[in-house]
Automatic annotation (TrEMBL):
Domain of life: Bacteria
PANTHER family reported for this sequence: GLUTATHIONE S-TRANSFERASE GSTA, GLUTATHIONE S-TRANSFERASE-RELATED
Alphabetized GO MF terms: transferase activity
Signal peptide extent: none
Protein's name in the database: Glutathione S-transferase
Length: 205
């Protein structure tokens, strides 16, 4: 059986949700991050999650790659779209945008400023710049979601499985990120899905 390595509170939550949405026979393995003795370093030399280890030992890393691979294991799933279709390209576009502009371009600076400046005295400024970038990135998403429930095709897709992770993280950042009715509604719709509820319960256990 394939194994998906995840960590509580990490971006791997999106791939966890996708496994449940797709009903795939994948073993979920919880690991600790940034601990030298953690199992994840034996699986992924980078020590990052998610990491998908296939039955034959092959490894796939990075959320955007794993999400697409998982969806392709269930041909015809509404979570993705056929090869060559416009919708598939749109879903891939959103995955790229979320991964670069929201995750690495914004949250990474907020959560791990030491990666951008070695001087702790400058970390507040790094976090502030990350917040500015995050607001700009979310503005684009908010405009797109106005009048829509989900990102592509009026249905939940792997792009939403990924985006919901970061919309959920906004509550950690204080009131300045809590005033969007559109994003708050999106978060509630995401949290209401049985797959998300099951994933949350599993990771909090």
């Amino acid at each position: 059986m394939s194994k998906l390595y995840i960590a509580r509170g990490a971006c791997s939550f999106g791939t966890h949700v996708a496994v449940r949405e797709l009903g795939l026979p994948v073993e979920l393995v919880k690991v600790k991050l940034r601990e030298p003795g953690s199992l994840i370093y034996q699986v992924n030399p980078l020590g990052r999650v998610p990491a998908l280890q296939l039955d034959d030992g092959a490894l796939i890393t990075e959320s955007t790659a794993i999400l697409q691979y998982l969806a392709d294991q269930v041909p015809g799933t509404p979570l993705f779209a056929p090869a060559g279709s416009i919708e598939r390209g749109q879903i891939q576009s959103w995955l790229s945008y979320i991964g670069t502009e929201i995750h690495v371009g914004s949250f990474r600076a907020i959560n791990r400023p030491e990666r951008y400046h070695p001087d702790p005295a400058e970390h507040t400024l790094v976090r502030e710049r990350g917040a500015v970038q995050l607001k700009a990135g979310l503005s684009h998403i908010e405009k797109h979601l106005t009048g829509r429930q989900w990102l592509v095709g009026e249905r939940f897709t792997i792009a939403d499985a990924y985006l919901g992770v970061f919309i959920g993280w906004l509550a950690r950042l204080g009131p300045e990120f809590a005033d969007s009715a559109v994003l708050n509604g999106y978060r509630e719709a995401y949290r209401a899905r049985p797959s998300v509820q099951a994933a949350l319960a599993f990771e909090q256990d």
